[in-house]
Amino acid sequence: MPVLQFNQATDYAFRVVLHLACLPQGAIVNGQTLAEKEKIPQRFLLKIMRSLTAAGIIKSYRGVDGGFALAQNADRITLLAVIEAMEGKVAVHRCLNERDACTKFCTHECPVHHALAGVQAQFVTSLGSINFAELARKRTGREGGESSVC
């Protein structure tokens, strides 16, 4: 079993946000189209969209012409934001988020805790530095300008 692996919902969320980031700003896409294009089961898509909407990443529109769009510019949405919307705060080890998770019950933090805290800080910083506008440009093969197809 992997030590650190994002769940399937997070992978789907990456796909959805990237898909929307590749479209012109403000473009609305219906759920069925998103599900088909990104190969996501439609019932699972709705659950993912609720989490992304609650986090302020996606905006939901009701009605005949309804669907989903990015709630903010793609350059402000990071991998870290999507991960945290889907899974909560990133933690490479239990003791970094839950001090009581250590079964040794030390009065101080051990050297392993300190080392993992440094790794986690670097990991979180890296995830927070990668935005979906950059990823969309790489996906479309265009470094400048907006793309309407992804």
Automatic annotation (TrEMBL):
<dbReference type="InterPro" id="IPR000944">
    <property type="entry name" value="Tscrpt_reg_Rrf2"/>
</dbReference>
<dbReference type="GO" id="GO:0003700">
    <property type="term" value="F:DNA-binding transcription factor activity"/>
</dbReference>
<dbReference type="InterPro" id="IPR036388">
    <property type="entry name" value="WH-like_DNA-bd_sf"/>
</dbReference>
<dbReference type="GO" id="GO:0005829">
    <property type="term" value="C:cytosol"/>
</dbReference>
<dbReference type="InterPro" id="IPR030489">
    <property type="entry name" value="TR_Rrf2-type_CS"/>
</dbReference>
<dbReference type="Pfam" id="PF02082">
    <property type="entry name" value="Rrf2"/>
</dbReference>
<dbReference type="InterPro" id="IPR036390">
    <property type="entry name" value="WH_DNA-bd_sf"/>
</dbReference>
<protein>
    <submittedName>
        <fullName>BadM/Rrf2 family transcriptional regulator</fullName>
    </submittedName>
</protein>
